[in-house]
Amino acid sequence: MVPADGSPVFVRCVSQPAARLTVPDTLPNGALTLRFPLQDKAYPGLPYESRPGVVGGIFPYEYRLLSFTRDGVTQDASTLKLDFRAGTVRFTPSVEGNYAVTLEVRDSGAVQKTLQQTFNIKVAASSFAFVAPDGLDAAGRGSRSAPFKTIAYAQANAGPDKVLLLRKGRYSAVGLALADDKAKQVVAYPDEVVTLDLARSSSIDIRSDRLPMPRIEGVDITGVIQYGINVDPALAGAVIRNVRFVDGQEGPVKFENPAFIHTWGDELPRHKLLLQDNDFGRYVGAGYATTLYDVFDSIIENNQLRLGEGVNGGFHDKDNAQFNVYRQNYIEAPANSSNHAIQISAQY
Fold first, then answer.
1. DSSP per-residue letters across 164-183
2. CA torsion angle 202 204 208 212 (round to 10)
3. From start to end of 132-226, where are the E strands?
4. First and final C-alpha spacing in the chain
5. pLDDT at res. 284
6. How do residues 236-255 score in pLDDT, each as one tens digit?
7. Burial grade of 84 (CB within 10 A; 0-12, 13-18, 19 or more)
8. Residue 106 to residues 29, 42, 50, 89, 229, Cα–Cα distance (Å)
């Protein structure tokens, strides 16, 4: 109870690792399966944070750290933080090397299913190209101390396996495409606010058939018209995490599935997405958070949106979708709202 005078209440939380929540078995209750691994690259001296995508069994899950090594040598486990429920891994690698994190996942069934998985994380400065508003687009740049200035130039001068690490500021994202022939992972520098501005002009296009997965992480996206992120295709998967969709607006072609995230439908199961920890803001017009055609084996979890604040509909799982998992999404709707929070159409 909160005291009448409003004085603080202090709560002591005691961890009891042996205690667990047991949930009645429900279908399909298949084997625990890893659909999306941890990010496999980290920069020496910068905080690393990533989260896997697991399906199967009975949710919720329990995550435990089994081992943590660098170049085969055991590391101090206390330097790595693991979220017991979400599986989020956090640590700051001090030196370069090949790190291996082995996790055990348990479900909440009456008879627990388990999964052990080792994630390999390469810590190397050479895996990254830096971009900053006060940088310079010139040959020989792209390091932490000498960043590029624009995403377009960085992409053109960084290979497909590079991660573009964006320093705080506002960037033009007009015409931005994440394809297999150039850098396709765009990530905000830790704890810095990065804004991608589409200027009511175009979407961010994902067109990828092979690994590494395209990745958009930690950024704000503004100036959306019709589609914010347009996927066509993402055969090997795409990761959109910790993205704040600030605002959107329906385009001139009315009712053509406007959404912050849209996938084109060609009656082929070829879009595989991890949509995790995103925030969907105001959309003017008949917009949705997502309109997903031909999406399969995807995970949509821990996202939040508010219907009635301009968003016409929530997550729309459209035609020819298969085996998608929705869980722990926060969807707020006004009283007596006719808007759909999660809508499934022509499900396979």
1. EEEPSEEEE-TT-EEETTS-
2. 160
3. 163-166, 169-172, 177-179, 185-188, 194-197, 204-208, 215-217, 220-222, 224-225
4. 49
5. 84
6. 999 999 999 999 999 887 77
7. middle
8. 13, 27, 19, 16, 34
**From CA 292, how far away is CA 257, in angstroms rounded?**
9
Q: Which amino acid is at 250?
A: E
Q: How do strand 220-222 and strand 194-197 relate by DSSP bridges?
A: parallel
DSSP one-letter code for 162: P
d(CA 135, CA 227): 29
Q: Can you tell me the distance from the alpha carbon of 33 to that of 151, in angstroms, rounded to the nearest whole number?
A: 35
Query: How many CA atoms, within 13 angstroms, populate the side-chain half-sphere of residue 13?
Result: 2
Given a contact cutoff of 8 angstroms between Cβ atoms, the answer to whether 282 and 309 are in contact is yes
151: phi then psi, degrees, rounded to nearest 5: -65, -40
Which pLDDT score is estimated for 336?
Answer: 59
Residues with Cβ within 8 Å of 258's Cβ and at least 6 positions away in sequence, in order, are 226, 227, 248, 250, 251, 283, 285, 286, 287, 288, 291
- Quickly state the pLDDT bin for 102 (edges 50, 70, 90): very high
Asked if 60 and 22 count as a contact pair (C-beta separation under 8 A), the reply is no
Q: Look up residue 6 and give its DSSP letter.
A: -
Query: What span, in angstroms and rounded, lies between the C-alpha atoms of 248 and 270?
Result: 26
Beta bridge pairs of residue 301: 276, 327
Q: What is the pLDDT of residue 10?
A: 81
d(CA 205, CA 12) in angstroms, rounded, equals 47
51, two tokens: 């989260």
Q: Which of 221, 240, 234 is nearest to 263 (CA)?
A: 234
pLDDT at site 332 = 84
Mean residue pLDDT across the chain: 92
- What is the tens place of the pLDDT at every residue in 165-196? 999 999 999 999 999 999 999 999 999 999 99
Backbone torsion region of residue 311, taken as left when φ is above 0, otherwise alpha when ψ lies between -120 and 50, otherwise beta? beta
**Residue 201: which pLDDT band, with cuts at 50, 70 and 90?**
very high
